[in-house]
DNA sequence: CTGTTAGCGCCTTCAT
DNA sequence: ATGAAGGCGCTAACAG
């Protein structure tokens, strides 16, 4: 059997004798006689008919599609959020088109964002990627709703939803202080990203609030990669003022730190204490269990989806943008030794 | 500024004075005078024009879009493959629409697959999900190309690409035998999934080939979840004929097994040996490093993308389907004790 | 409640 | 090399 051409209203019309308008009304919630509804349903069933969303989009001028812009460097957290967003949007009848910039040649005429816009997405959900910022800003200013997940950028015409990073940093700092640590290090990551600045700020604020100080040589920065986390940790461990505990403020940094600790032959929660980020699974697999700050993945996804839906329905340039901050959860393992008594 | 309506050929026509046909040719590789090319480019630039992919799809009858069908239970491996597929397809000018069945009410008129088909995807890439099988089979038979990743189903009109599971099982079995183990257990997972049957078969074949036997009570089956891996492992550890080594044949089972081992206070690679699956990061984070069978994620993604592209271009019911099997890699840590001497 | 009509933006003959 | 015209499948007035 050759590739069968999809059925159209015309085919249903041929079978039922009804007009195209009536059939359209049937599919769009208009008033149609019960008898005719039955006819259409039967015809559609026999043809395995499905409304052509492209044609519908063209006519309506809106596609019922949202684009997700992925960064080059992504981790499991981002992917889970995307899946969550898709789930919540699908419940609203909105589909998700995914596009990343990975392997993009800078010269390539069409970047990921252009692809999405060309497909007439009704909105864009963007995950961190500094390189997309300019194009994203232009799109946002032209009136298409943009929601950023996990980051925000001053001046960008977009809503953002993410973990309450300042609070998360604070909670971790407090936890560490409560265990009596004095020499405290942090893998703070890339400080050009709002997310990482906020986590660091909350953390340091908790320390100073409790009378602790943290010297600059114990605040390690660098890219958000496993390698960077590894080398930062190695450096801290070899440091003259070696900390008794360290906080890895991102998933990749956490993995890197754990590897460094393992390779150094140090016992987690005994020779060196640590708090990690993001990976619930990791925290249960290490010995002893790693204490981590876990993100509310589904809540973030849900809020992002809802925000996007609202913006699409408003259909006008909003006067202000929201910054939703959702609290995280400290999952306490046994990787932070108590130095009391 | 209100939501600006996107520019169209008409706008370019107004500026350049050229006909719609010429403009279309410009965008579709036809012959256009250099002077006119310049005019169009300038106009497009000033309007930030982008071809409306929906209108184009409608007219052409092909959308340049591939749908990805996600299962309810997914893990990091699946997501990484999807991202890889997107990357390779984008290089071919094909976009990726994602749809999952998570949170789907069975009564819901439109399942994930219908959504994709309604959007006129040119093909479907499906990741395991027994529940979609019927609908998928119907779609495949109606002529739309289907490529399954990580699994295959007898009789389904689809190509498949995945790890060489039999070989993977064999390699792990051989590794274990080489270390002198006699009492060997396996978390074989859901045996209704081809993937898991193949891994088990290859594994057992390696054992018997080397004169080992494995009794049924050491072959644990169950759903592909962390919980199942955990309870299976607990059961094995409590067993009368407790194995000296176990093989977790999937990512989630691996995580579950590690947690069970940790909670039991056993030392990995000393009190109990183990080989896991999939997670390169996990393997580096455990103490000692976990020996795992790693999948060639990018190769799988690339082959899947290429296969899909080929099928779309063929545009006809193929007479036979391919089963691509890509070899994995055993990453050797120190979680398998040597029982020799 | 149903039908007629006129496009949405683009591509594709067919002329010129 | 360019232009004129028709239509992809659907929806939104507007009549009836």
Largest pleated sheet of chain A: 6 strands, parallel
Low-confidence stretches of chain A: none
Tally the helices of chain A. 13
**Quick one: which chains have the greatest interface?**
A-B, 66 and 65 residues
Strand count of chain A: 12
Please sum up the structure shown.
The structure is a homodimer of 341-residue chains. With 341 residues, chain A is α/β, with parallel strands linked by helices.
Descriptive key words:
homodimer; 341 residues; alpha/beta; six-stranded parallel sheet; six-stranded mixed sheet; 13 helices; 12 strands; 44% helix; 16% strand; elongated; DNA-binding
How is this fold's topology laid out?
Two copies of one chain form a homodimer.
Chain A: H1 9-16, H2 20-27, H3 34-47, H4 53-60, E1 65-70, H5 76-90, E2 95-100, H6 112-118, E3 123-126, H7 133-141, E4 146-149, E5 159-163, H8 165-178, E6 184-189, H9 194-209, E7 219-221, H10 226-238, E8 245-248, H11 251-263, E9 273-277, H12 280-285, E10 291-294, H13 297-314, E11 323-326, E12 329-331
Parallel strand pairs in A: 1-2, 1-3, 3-4, 4-5, 5-11, 6-7, 6-8, 8-9, 9-10
Antiparallel strand pairs in A: 10-12
Helix pairs in contact in A: 1-3, 5-13, 8-9, 10-11
Chain A binds a DNA duplex (16 and 16 nucleotides) through helix 2 and helix 4.
What does this structure look like?
The structure is a homodimer of 341-residue chains. The longest helix of chain A is centred in the last third of the chain and has 18 residues, at 297-314. In chain A, helix 12 (280-285) links the parallel strand 9 and strand 10. The first copy, chain A, is elongated. Helix content of chain A is 44%, strand content 16%. Chain A has 13 helices and twelve strands. Chain A starts with 8 loop residues before the first helix and ends in a 10-residue tail after the last strand. In chain A, helix 1 crosses helix 3 (34-47) and helix 5 (76-90) packs across helix 13. Chain A is of the alpha/beta class and 341 residues long. In chain A, the strands form two sheets. A six-stranded parallel beta sheet of chain A has the order 2-1-3-4-5-11, with helices on both faces. A six-stranded mixed beta sheet of chain A has the order 7-6-8-9-10-12, with helices on both faces. Chain A has helices at residues 9-16, 20-27, 34-47, 53-60, 76-90, 112-118, 133-141, 165-178, 194-209, 226-238, 251-263, 280-285, 297-314, and strands spanning 65-70, 95-100, 123-126, 146-149, 159-163, 184-189, 219-221, 245-248, 273-277, 291-294, 323-326, 329-331. Strand 2 of chain A pairs antiparallel with strand 2 (95-100) of chain B. The structure holds a DNA duplex (16 and 16 nucleotides).
């Amino acid at each position: 059997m050759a590739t069968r051409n999809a059925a159209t209203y015309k085919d249903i019309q041929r079978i039922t004798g009804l007009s195209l308008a009536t059939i359209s009304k049937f599919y769009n919630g208009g008033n149609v006689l019960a008898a005719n509804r039955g006819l259409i349903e039967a015809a559609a069933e026999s043809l395995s008919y499905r409304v052509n969303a492209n044609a519908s989009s063209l006519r309506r001028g809106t596609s019922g599609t949202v684009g997700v812009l992925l960064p080059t460097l992504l981790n499991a957290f981002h992917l889970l959020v995307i899946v969550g967003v898709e789930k919540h949007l699908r419940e609203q009848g909105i589909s998700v088109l995914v596009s990343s910039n990975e392997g993009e040649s800078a010269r390539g005429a069409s970047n990921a964002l252009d692809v999405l816009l060309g497909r007439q997405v009704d909105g864009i959900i963007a995950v961190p990627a500094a390189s997309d910022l300019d194009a994203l800003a232009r799109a946002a200013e032209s009136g298409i709703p943009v929601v950023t997940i996990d980051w925000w950028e001053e001046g960008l015409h977009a809503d953002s939803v993410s973990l309450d990073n300042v609070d998360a940093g604070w909670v971790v700092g407090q936890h560490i202080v409560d265990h009596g640590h004095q020499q405290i290090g942090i893998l703070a990551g890339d400080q050009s990203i709002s997310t990482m600045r906020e986590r660091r700020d909350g953390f340091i604020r908790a320390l100073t609030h409790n009378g602790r100080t943290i010297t600059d040589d114990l605040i390690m920065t660098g890219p958000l990669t496993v390698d960077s986390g590894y080398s930062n940790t190695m450096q801290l461990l070899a440091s003259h003022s070696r900390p008794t505990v360290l906080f890895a403020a991102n998933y990749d940094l956490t993995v890197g730190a754990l590897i460094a600790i393992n390779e150094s032959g140090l016992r987690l929660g005994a020779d060196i204490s640590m708090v990690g980020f993001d990976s619930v699974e990791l925290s249960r697999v290490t010995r002893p269990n790693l204490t981590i700050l876990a993100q509310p993945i589904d809540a973030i996804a849900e809020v992002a989806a809802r925000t996007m839906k609202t913006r699409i329905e408003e259909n006008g340039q909003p006067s202000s943008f929201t910054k939703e901050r959702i609290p995280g959860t400290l999952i306490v393992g046994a990787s932070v030794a108590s130095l009391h008594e």
